[in-house]
Write a structure and sequence with these properties.
This protein has 13 helices and ten strands. By secondary structure, the protein is α+β, with helices and mostly antiparallel strands.
């Protein structure tokens, strides 16, 4: 089975020492310790609100238990520190790599586990959302960047880059968005001109996750001045290449623990050995990987919504007003009944999408629909849960406040809700 089963599961030993606690100890009021989820919860997904699930096998359940134990011990206690710093300590990625959680789809001889089963990705995505761990890079690397490094690289490129990536020593990023382009991939202004065995890459990128800490950046730029080549190319820029500079670390409303940056390229000389795939075919490569990227976001959204409902149910059972728990008020019961049902519906839909993707059958239209529906639901759940917490829901020491601010961007990144609806709408013959 490789390292994800024989390593990531077995190497994550229970009771590895210490009490992980919660991000702020006792100040995280009404936070259920994620460690309390036992084996009986695993087929029901991260939380306790969902229907019985059938898409996972025992090995995925073992993996879930191990991932949760690792995140609660090594990530959750550092949430506030990492958010204050605006970046995760690089040592954490090495610890995650040692557990087989970084690049597990890579071949075993290059440090991975050779696992192409997306259900492992889904488990990791869900546990990051459910535990509240700052682990955006794990989603980014395994779900978004890894396909480029595995499917488009030559044997030499894989041997050069993957050992460092899977060891957690080489941090990667992908730079597509530009200040003036947004979701319009064809509107990019970054260029790459071939000259003397290199491509001169020029332009600027923004909203680059892990941009500050990245050692390797996959950059999308239009190939110019080359005969028989017309289109986007993908170029791997290394951090020390002359002409490559990192701008400011962007000050975000949410996901504060994950660095996000502006990047600048001024005639960066990228050798031909650092070109990914076929020059001019970059748009095709990007579009091919978008369904998995969007499904990953949908998986995260549903798990986060489940967690929000869980902590809110705990809160309304214990918070008293007018002499009784606020959960006993009909208006609140009805609100939570509606949200719980919607989340269950979303869970069934997303499990179907996970199964389809694992079988190689998920379409871009289905992925777009999953992305917009679940992220809209996620924010609606978060907003209602904040309301049910009252003034406490707006206080930083309450978990729901952080979840609420983290949820807002999910309707934007990876393709806005409006773009996703456009994809679905056009599939209906409406143009």
């Amino acid at each position: 089975m490789g390292r994800a089963a024989a390593g990531a599961v077995a190497a994550l030993r229970p009771n590895a020492g210490g009490d992980p606690g919660s991000p702020a100890g006792a100040r995280r009021a009404h936070r259920r310790d994620p460690r309390r989820a036992g084996a009986g919860d695993l087929h029901r997904s991260p939380g306790a609100l969902t229907l019985q699930r059938t898409i996972f096998d025992d090995v995925h359940d073992d993996f879930r238990e191990s991932v949760r134990r690792f995140l609660v011990k090594e990530a959750v206690p550092h949430t506030e520190d990492w958010e204050a710093a605006g970046a995760v300590d690089r040592a954490f990625w090495k610890k995650a790599a040692a557990q087989g959680l970084v690049g597990f789809a890579a071949p075993e001889d290059l440090g991975g586990a050779g696992l192409s089963d997306f259900r492992f990705n889904a488990v990791l995505d869900e546990e990051i959302a459910y535990t509240g761990a700052v682990g955006d890079y794990l989603n980014l690397l395994n779900d978004i960047i890894a396909p480029y490094l595995l499917d488009l690289t030559t044997a030499e490129q894989r041997e050069r880059w993957l050992p460092g990536v899977t060891a957690g020593e080489t941090i990667c990023a992908i730079a597509m968005s530009e200040p003036g382009a947004g979701s319009d991939l064809r509107g990019m202004s970054s260029t790459a001109r071939r000259q003397d065995g290199h491509y001169l890459v020029s332009g600027s990128k923004t909203f680059v996750t892990s941009g500050i800490t990245a050692d390797l950046v996959i950059v999308a730029a239009y190939v110019k001045g080359e005969e028989n080549v017309d289109g986007l190319g993908l170029f791997v820029v290394e951090k020390d290449m002359p002409g490559f500079s990192k701008g400011r670390k962007l000050d975000k409303v949410g996901h504060r623990g994950q660095d996000t940056a502006e990047l600048f390229f001024d005639d960066v000389r990228v050798p031909l050995e650092n070109v990914l795939g076929e020059p001019g075919r970059g748009l095709h490569h990007l579009m091919r990987n978008l369904p998995q990227e969007r499904l990953s976001m949908a998986v995260y959204a549903v798990a986060a919504a489940e967690r929000a409902l869980e902590i809110t149910l705990e809160y309304v059972r214990t918070r008293n007003a007018f002499g009784k728990p606020i959960g006993s008020f009909q208006a609140n019961r009805f609100a939570l009944a509606e949200l719980a049902t919607e989340v269950n519906v979303a869970r069934v839909f997303i499990d179907r999408c996970i199964a389809a993707h694992s079988a190689g059958e998920l379409s871009d239209v289905e992925a777009a629909g999953a992305k917009f529906w679940t992220t809209e639901l996620q924010f609606r759940v978060m907003d209602r849960c904040v309301q049910l917490h009252g003034g406490y829901g707006y206080m930083e020491e309450y978990e729901i406040a952080r979840m609420w601010r983290d949820a807002r961007v999910t309707r934007i990144y990876g393709g806005t809700t409006e773009i996703m609806k456009e994809i679905v709408g056009r599939s209906l013959g409406l143009r």
